[in-house]
What we know:
With 506 residues, the protein is an alpha/beta fold. It folds into 3 domains: 1-35, no CATH class; 49-286 and 488-504, Aldehyde Dehydrogenase, Chain A, domain 1 (3-Layer(aba) Sandwich), CATH 3.40.605; 291-478, Aldehyde Dehydrogenase, Chain A, domain 2, CATH 3.40.309. The chain is built from 16 helices and 26 strands. The radius of gyration is 24 Å and the shape is globular. The structure holds adenosine-5'-diphosphate. The site of adenosine-5'-diphosphate has 16 residues, from helix 8 and helix 9. The site of adenosine-5'-diphosphate (ADP) has 16 residues, from helix 8 and helix 9.
Amino acid sequence: MKTKRKAAVKANKTNSSNGSMVDISLKFDEGWSYSPAPESTDHVSIKERYGLFIGGKFVKPALGKYFATINPATEKKISEVANASSADVDKAVKAARKAFGPWSSLPARERGKYVYRISRMMQEKARELAVIESMDGGKAIREARDIDIPLAAAHFFYYAGWADKLDYAFPNKKPTPLGVAGQIIPWNFPLLMAAWKIAPAIAAGNTVVLKSAETTPLTSMKLAEIIQEAGLPDGVVNIITGAGDTGAALVNHPDIDKIAFTGSTGVGKIIQNAIAGTDKKVTLELGGKAANIILDDAPLDQAVEGIINGIYFNQGHVCCAGSRLFVQEDVADTVIRKLKDRMQTLIVGDPLDKNTDIGAINSKEQLATINRYIKIGKNEGADFYQSKCKIPNKGYWCPPTLFLNVSQSHRIAQEEIFGPVLAVQTFRTVDEVIEKANNTPYGLSAGIWTDKGSKIFNITAKLNAGVIWANTYNKFDPTSPFGGYKESGFGREGGLPGLQAYLNLG
Length: 506
Ligand code: ADP
């Protein structure tokens, strides 16, 4: 089957030399066909069933329960993973506790070597990891290959470098590890989130129990295999699978020193309640509803690329997605026209096809949530627009979507949708957009597009957001801290603040 990349403009006609009318414009609703370019899967090895990675071995779950992980693009089962009970969580925490003494007293240089080794092995297996990430979670192979996996390896590489330099990272302090960290990750960037959590923790001398998300456990199992092959001492990293109950058992385990959580604000609140009154340390990276602000002096074509990347990257399953677009009124018509044209060129479909821009929605449940919000947006009276793309018959899909004429009080402008749905508003003055952008319970990220550095400094200083991109969007780097304000959580991951989150500074 050929994928149609729809291109170019409506009939803008002009006179040719012989007096007839010639169509000079690009057409966005017909045209370029792309032959399929599927990434092969024959190099990938996935077991039929995975146990829990505890104490350096894959072990059976205590209650013998497993659950299936499916490919959201085909709805076919890929493999089965263990459903860890509280007995398994206890076993994993005990393994981590046992490993903590020897690991934290190992010469830091030796610790660093292990972390480097994990990074190198991830790079060696990058192609396999990318394909599995795409199959298990639905993300486009182009993104898994070019963003998720290289960044995950880069995090291990970066923190490996800090392992024996903690005294320089925090001068005049006596940094010591916290102990055993319980880490819970979501399904949108499975391997990358595992790297964000594990790399700084073990480089700083902690040991960990990590729980992957229920719909995307497979790359964490591959990471467990890498860790085993790297010869990391048993119990330093334990990786378990399961759903919310397993996560709750980890949070509530009395021998955990630190909880690091990335996920929804709702679960973040449950976790904060659960640990109140204990001396567990915690970092929470929660939801977002970022403002992406386009001023009238912005380079508009680049800004349109930034809008597309901001909201449609990873099917919009991104906590820092630029899901609220604010366009200055005098350029709004132009920006919306260009945006709609660009949306029409996005290829939605087989995540393993290298042409694909937008893959499958991660799960049936998430698709239902997105569709519920689309209905809410229509009922609220916003103008609905969706690209006219073909979507496969099987699997979970949502074409790139936007709503115009959105008002501040609309739920689609206030609540996190976590899908490829953009809420567009306009503004006239800088003060107005700052007020509108900050009118949200969240404060994770924002974007600003303008030609003037002075406007960037003025606006970014007044936005309540942990990460603000200027004339770009969704750029990540291991050296750069990431985290939020307000209901987007607290604590930072990445950079030195991400290392500090796993240390007592004495
Ligand atoms: P999402 O809505 O994006 O699925 P969640 O916050 O529900 O995000 O899930 C993120 C992670 O939190 C997953 O690994 C999930 O299993 C875990 N989780 C869900 N409920 C709880 C809970 N009550 N305590 C701890 N972890 C939980």
